[in-house]
Design brief:
The protein is mostly helical. It is built from 18 helices and 9 strands. The strands form 4 sheets. A 3-stranded antiparallel beta sheet has the order 4-6-7. Strands 1-2 form a two-stranded parallel ribbon. Helix 9 runs antiparallel to helix 13.
Length: 509
Amino acid sequence: MVELTGCSLTLAQAKQVIDEKVFVTLSQESMDRVKKSREAVERIVKEKRVVYGINTGFGKFSDVLIDPEDVEELQLNLIHSHACGVGDPFPENVSRAMLLLRANALLKGYSGVRPVIVERLVEFLNKEIHPVVPQQGSLGASGDLAPLSHLALALMGEGQVHYRGGIHDTLTVLSKENIFPIQLQAKEGLALINGTQAMTAMGVIGYLEAEELAHQSELIASLTMEGLRGITDAFDEDVHLARGYTQQVDTASRIRSYLQGSRLTTRQGELRVQDAYSLRCIPQVHGASWQALDYVKEKLEIEMNAATDNPLIFEDGEKIISGGNFHGQPIAFAMDFMKIAVAELANISERRIERLVNPQLSDLPPFLSPEPGLQSGAMIMQYCAASLVSENKTLAHPASVDSIPSSANQEDHVSMGTIGSRHAYQILQNTRRVVAIELVCSLQAVEHRGVDLMAPTTKRFYDEARKVIPSITKDRIFSKDIEAAASWLQSIQLHTIISNETKEETTNG
């Protein structure tokens, strides 16, 4: 069970709710804040005070006053007019993350919604009713207006939802679950859509997958080290302590632990004095990606617990301020940084693939072919990896450097953070396939060298991977192998296959 407070949600807890469907509850203290905030809104309506978003229009219409009898229609019109997202829907787990993050943000008690709004978001979570939300249409400032409007539609009984493996009309599902649609009241529509929960939800899903893939890429690189009879001296702890980056030190330590006991790796001078950068610099390059991912994690966990709508209500309604917490720039930068970090894991992986298949760079069979010439082996797999890497370079162009004015220039600078988060996820899928290709090739290489000579940890991983990826004894449709390997990597958690507690032999450093 995960209790939401509005202030303490972690990525680990988010993963439990999103992936493991852990039951969500609401802290009483947080709900008390929500109630007080709502009472302030109701006083404002009763006293006919002019406050943006409660009894005014939106954006450029902020100076248009709304009659008290029209404030509910104002919220309905807001959601209907802003629900103009287009394109394919976000993955269902991203929609689930949006529900979680929106509920947590409202629990901070600055938004002025009724408790039933928060309760309904959590009810959707616990009953696994996930709004269908189109991916495209957000500028990432004034919040993720279009995507979150589609989320709000579901609370109102409109639009469509993911439910029990299919997509259904929302009203049909609500009837089945005995849930009544909500009629939004003053400020509630604005409070639901004015925020960064689409880009942050996409970022959370992307980060959680990137973190696992980064760990997997290190173990697969270790198999490549064995396949190429790599030199382990470059991973000696003293080398990495001398530079001082914690993530680099940690990466080197994990590589040493994975290769402990291997009789395939070498020491400097045995076969050659030093390896190419794609082997020798694994800790430096992967470690730098970890630095970026650590930055992303920090920003996501701040944003997950942030009040990002507008206006915000303080001091029981005595202080109401129109600000700009909906601006997605912090997450936009983080997503662009994640794009680069993950793309670089693919870049260096593709270079290791080249060394595995190129007969001019190793003594392995050309292209790992069982019959060089008659059979092409992994030749075109490297082409595929190169193509994915090049596509990543285009996607890695920072979205956050772009801006375009909207709402008649009232909203004249925007973050494009949602575009950045979506591109980061695309890069992640491409990178997983590149790493999957390295896995296919490294398995073949260590098989050629002798699997009985592998380190215990890499051998355990080899045995599990071979259940999914058969040995290359004849040319076949390798697309199937790549996709099978990528799907397997996406479905597993490394710690369930290998132990990270393998004791390190200092002589193997």
